[in-house]
Amino acid sequence: MMTVIAYGTIALLLAVTALAAHRRADIRHADVATDAWIQLQPLLLRLPPALLAGVFLAALVPEQQVVAILGEASGLRGILLATLIGGLLPGGPMIAFPLGLALLEAGMGVPQMVTLITAWSVLAVHRLLVFEAPMMGWRFTGLRLLASAPLAPAAGCLTLAIEALAR
Amino acid sequence: MAMPDHGSNPVPPWRRLDGTTIFFTVLALGAGGTTWWLQGGEAFTQTLGRAAGLLVWITPVLLGALLVGAYVQRLIPRATMEHWLGGRSGLRGLVVATAAGAITPGGPFAAFPLVVALYRAGASVPVCVAYITAWSVLGLNRALVWELPFLGPDFVLLRLLVSLPLPFLAGYLAVLVTRWLRP
Questions:
Q1: Distance CA A92, CA B71 (A)
Q2: One domain for residues A8 and A69
Q3: Of A33, A95, B44, B170, which cross-links B133 as Cys (Cβ 3.0–4.6 Å)?
Q4: Model ipTM?
């Protein structure tokens, strides 16, 4: 089921975008394929070790401790802790998602994981230092951080609410 | 000795071994070795099999997502995006910024130059904040390439659903913070 949804979504998006591009005279499919190939190249070497690291870490993470502090039952306390972990987590998606897989497999709750991914996405310490502050200035960066601080807990609480409704 | 012909791609494969790749290789070897040492060869082989299965599952999704990203980038060039967003504000500005952020493909090196251009062109701070937030929490490209393979479609759909209001929330909070800083 999971596979069908994932593959179906991608196939549908690909069909829609390819068709839209086909109707435009200035877009050549070969150029698009070249763009995609350029993006793929760095992943060819990075993804397999990232995946292996994620899966092996998942086998090693002490499940009982993860469940105790970040499991479904950890509630709001777990959400606040996940905000902290996500906000301080350095690096790009190659680090965050394998770690996410490891923690989720070890029994981390879904609302807590939504919080962690959201906090990592909006606070992103290393993206902030490398791109945002130099390009947008510290005033804008600080203002955006203030406005973004409540977002991750909000997403976590919303997930909690949806789970409570679904039950 | 004649240099080997690399064709149109002059970068030899070992030059692609950057810090991130080395970090993960070392981490994978360390974690794999520890798994073998603590849990035995059978657990090691099983985990290795799981990783291989995941890789096989991911590959078609990844290829498809990269193609979708490349098509979107050609279909909606940066100039069009700037035109949509330039000088907008209010709820309509936030809606457009959220939609634009969600479909902007690529990493920070693609998104931030756009924000800088918008900011200089007179887009309001809340609109810029909403755009960055939408690009970070709703970014479809990253969700498809990274999140879907690792965390699965159920999780991705749920997370995108609860993230829909976040760019608006951030935009309105930015309005409040701006007022508070400059009374």
A1: 23
A2: no
A3: B170
A4: 0.76
Is there a single domain that holds both residue A32 and residue A66? no
| pLDDT 10s digits, B7-23 | 444 455 555 567 777 88
In tens, the pLDDT along B93-138 reads 889 889 888 887 766 766 787 788 778 777 888 999 999 999 999 9
Number of structural domains in chain A? 2
Q: Which residue of A has its CA nearest to B136?
A: A121
Separation of CA A151 from chain center: 15
Q: CB–CB of A10 and B144 under 8 A?
A: yes
Smallest Cα distance from A33 to chain B, Å: 7
**Is the CB of B71 less than 8 angstroms away from the CB of A21?**
yes
Same domain (yes/no): A39, A81: no
Closest CA of chain B from A167, distance in Å = 15
Domain that holds residue A3: 1-44
Alpha-carbon span B26 to B37, nearest angstrom: 16
Residue A53 lies in a domain: no
Contact B66 A39 (CB under 8 A): yes
